[in-house]
């Protein structure tokens, strides 16, 4: 962005101009629209890639020529058009207008009149409102970072819940954004950010190694190590123990809460819980407090 435009935006932010918050809401809703695309498509893409890799491996080993049929089409998350999930009709661009599109359609698809889940509208509206609230409560760069952090946190958490996998590309993007925002000390010093990445990854690696030695099984996935490192790139070295402690607390509360409300759900010792949401919620808490 041109420096002049950036300065104008910062001045508008300082003066609490309603035009500034209108711009934030519009950009926030546009980001949330793409977030809805990611939340729907990424698990499908990851499933497709896993199946294709298995097919390639089995073919190379001459175990099977075409062992698995994959029904999931590979989406292009950046350029691909949106289609109705019920009848497959391409959705016109004017129905994809953030927030307004769902309202204009009154919650029903324009092609087959099937209900459109309200979560699409809620994600767009609530994320836009959250972005406005962030800029109202924090400085310009702090708020901008919080919006980006939250955006990636929602995407990573949703994917981990659905697939129990964390895409490396999102984790690395989160990490580098943390380092970039702390280049001028937005949340912590650059030294604390970089050293925190190394210490955080090593800390969880050692903990998991010891757990594996005792229980003969991994306590968490390697993606969690990288994710903690990415979070500490934002919050700094001194917050490592706080993030770990809070994430453990959130993870335990989630486990117990799920056991209390889910029908027939048993608190089994070997049950797996996606840890990314707890880690990211802990990171967000340390970032804003």
TrEMBL record:
The highest taxon in the source lineage is Bacteria
Q: What InterPro entries has UniProt attached to this entry?
A: Peptidase_A24A_bac (IPR014032), Prepilin_IV_endopep_pep (IPR000045), Prepilin_pept_A24_N (IPR010627), Prepilin_peptidase/N-MTase (IPR050882)
Domain Prepilin type IV endopeptidase peptidase as annotated: residue spans: 148-255
Name the chemical reaction catalysed here. Typically cleaves a -Gly-|-Phe- bond to release an N-terminal, basic peptide of 5-8 residues from type IV prepilin, and then N-methylates the new N-terminal amino group, the methyl donor being S-adenosyl-L-methionine
Molecular function, one GO term: aspartic-type endopeptidase activity
Q: Where in the cell is it found?
A: Cell inner membrane; Cell membrane
A GO cellular component annotated for this chain's UniProt record is: plasma membrane
Pfam families from the entry?
Answer: A24_N_bact, Peptidase_A24
Span of domain Prepilin peptidase A24 N-terminal: 27-137
Transmembrane residue ranges: 18-40, 83-105, 125-149, 170-187, 193-212, 243-261
One BP annotation, GO = methylation
Keywords in UniProt for this one? Cell inner membrane, Cell membrane, Hydrolase, Membrane, Methyltransferase, Multifunctional enzyme, Protease, Transferase, Transmembrane, Transmembrane helix
EC number(s) from the headed UniProt entry: 2.1.1.-, 3.4.23.43
Q: What is its main location?
A: membrane
Q: How does it sit in the membrane?
A: Multi-pass membrane protein
- Signal peptide range: none
What PANTHER family does the record point to?
PREPILIN LEADER PEPTIDASE_N-METHYLTRANSFERASE-RELATED (PTHR30487:SF0), TYPE 4 PREPILIN-LIKE PROTEINS LEADER PEPTIDE-PROCESSING ENZYME (PTHR30487)
* Record's function text: Plays an essential role in type IV pili and type II pseudopili formation by proteolytically removing the leader sequence from substrate proteins and subsequently monomethylating the alpha-amino group of the newly exposed N-terminal phenylalanine.
Family membership noted in the UniProt record: Belongs to the peptidase A24 family.
Report the protein name in the record.
Prepilin leader peptidase/N-methyltransferase
């Amino acid at each position: 962005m041109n420096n002049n435009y950036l300065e104008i935006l910062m001045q508008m932010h300082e003066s609490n101009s309603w035009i500034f918050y209108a711009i934030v809401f519009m950009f926030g809703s546009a980001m949330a629209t793409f977030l809805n695309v990611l939340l729907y498509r990424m698990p499908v893409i990851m499933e497709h890639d896993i199946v294709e890799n298995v097919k390639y491996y089995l073919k190379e080993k001459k175990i099977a020529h075409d062992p698995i049929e994959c029904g999931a089409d590979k989406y292009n998350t950046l350029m691909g058009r949106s289609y109705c999930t019920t009848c497959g009709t391409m959705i016109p661009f004017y129905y994809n207008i953030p927030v307004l599109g769902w309202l204009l359609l009154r919650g029903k698809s324009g092609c087959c009149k099937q209900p459109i889940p309200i979560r699409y509208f809620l994600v767009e509206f609530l994320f836009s409102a959250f972005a406005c609230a962030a800029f109202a409560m924090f400085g310009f760069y702090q708020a901008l970072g919080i919006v980006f952090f939250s955006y990636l946190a929602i995407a990573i958490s949703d994917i981990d819940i659905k697939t129990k996998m964390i895409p490396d590309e999102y984790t690395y993007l989160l990490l580098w954004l943390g380092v970039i925002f702390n280049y001028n000390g937005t949340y912590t010093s650059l030294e604390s950010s970089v050293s925190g990445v190394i210490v955080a990854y090593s800390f969880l690696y050692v903990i998991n190694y010891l757990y594996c030695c005792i229980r003969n099984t991994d306590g968490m996935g390697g993606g969690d190590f990288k994710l903690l490192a990415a979070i500490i790139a934002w919050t700094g070295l001194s917050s490592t123990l706080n993030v770990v402690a809070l994430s453990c607390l959130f993870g335990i509360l989630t486990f117990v809460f799920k056991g209390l409300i889910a029908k027939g759900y048993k608190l089994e010792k070997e049950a797996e819980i996606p840890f990314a949401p707890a880690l990211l919620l802990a990171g967000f808490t340390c970032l804003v407090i």
